[in-house]
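Worked problem 6 (solution included).
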Amino acid sequence: MVLISITVTHMLMANLMIVLIDIFDLAEQIGIYFAVKGNDPTENIQRRFFFILFAIGAISVFKPLFNQPRLHIIFSLCIENLKLILHLSFLPRTADLLTITILFFFIEVLFHVLALYTAWTSNGNYPNQRHPPCCTICMLLCWYEMMFETQILLLFVDSTSPFRDTFYEILINLSIFFGLIVVDKHFSWRLYIDDVNNDRSLYNIWRLIVNILGVVEYFILAMTGIVYASKLLHNSTQLKTYDFIVCILMLICYGVNVIVITLIAVAALHWYIPKWHRRSFRTNS
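Solution. The predicted structure is:
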């Protein structure tokens, strides 16, 4: 009974630390963005911020390759250290940036240490682990490239473009955050101390929330991108050649993605509603 109690406590703490790390990582990301934007009249520093964001994201997609919980957490902790070094090396060390970066760094390190402690004291019992197939690296890189290709191209459009305004750049921030979490959650082969078969576990509930928010946010991003690109192409004579090409690519990529998301949503509803109806019918019977 004591062992079961300890295991349940470890599961709850590990899952809670994972959720808190994700939430504080988003808060740090948004906070640094506004700190940089408020001190960047030329917008060159904003480009550096997004380059750092995409670079950290490219490294983060390899987290699922570490199918041991301890190694996974240690790798995530190394990424936090790398992120701190990049922010302090390539961004202006203003008071706002230093405060946000250092404060969130120590908070997230604390959460990582607590998560590592729960993993280290769990008797090493992970019966649900699976080794990722050899093609995982290619899958991760392709997934990352498909998610963020258009966002990377937008960094080089004209500074007066609506794609460079605060609203759309916040959408890009959120897209990177949700996209990386979705990749991590879907490609992680039951890494954490968590009963993955329990649909009501904290980790699975958080994963469901992130998936829903990620799809909704990307749909908003895509629709906004389509509207902006259409408006710019309406006055194409004033566009630079690069901006014109990017707008065409935006319409194609986001148009296809919106159609795919819509079809997936319809198919999911078509599958879920009859299942829910049958479950309700059995309950009432």
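Discussion: Residues 1-6, 124-128, 189-199 have pLDDT under 50 and may be disordered.
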